[in-house]
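Deliverable D5.2: sample structural annotation.
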Amino acid sequence: MQVGICTEVGNVRQQNQDSCGYAGGLFVVADGMGGAQAGEIASAIAVQQLMRLADVSEGYPEALSKAIEAANATVYNMASADENYRGMGTTIALIKLINGMVYFAHIGDSRIYLKRGPQLTALTFDHSVAAELVRNGGITEAEAQHHPQRHFLTRALGTDAVARPEIGQIAAQQGDLFLLCTDGLTGVVGPDAVNHIMEHGSEVQSMAEALVNAACEAGGPDNVSVIIVRITEADL
């Protein structure tokens, strides 16, 4: 596989509360939330906990659920025990590649896309108030882009005693590009623009950097993190 990764604080925020990690066919992005440094801590803890999956090669997709529950408990218990961390939490988006299968999971509004050929397909659906309204037919996707509650999450890791991830799997094909990203990208760069950048890129690292640069050029109002994974013949 080929991997590109890029994370930036953006043009407005003072701290980067995103965290990223990858090893052993596992790739994770997380976007923390909470006052002071709490969001940064929440995302870092979540990624650190989830990276234990790098050494787990059996028992999927149940292994994803167990690891996410463990990470959720760690963040939730820390937030419950210390007033400085009260209310902290994080989004997560992760994929694990094993024997040609890609297992994926997410909580919150960090996304996973699959680019196969010319098509860019979302594998996740945001856990936000606006996205839920779209899903239920209350508003259109165009209206959701400007909805006042588009950033209000309905699920996050660490904010409740029980995590509620969405988990799926898909058979990988040679040349597939998997994109994991925080909403610092998707909040300002639309899917068509993302697809265009990936379509005209060659190396995955340059693609990741180009996507982050596009977010910053569009105002960079939030931290932005991107991981791109290209599947090669050796991965199948």
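Annotation notes: The chain has a mean pLDDT of 95. Residues 153 and 213 are 26 Å apart (CA to CA).
The annotation will be released with the project's public dataset once the embargo ends.
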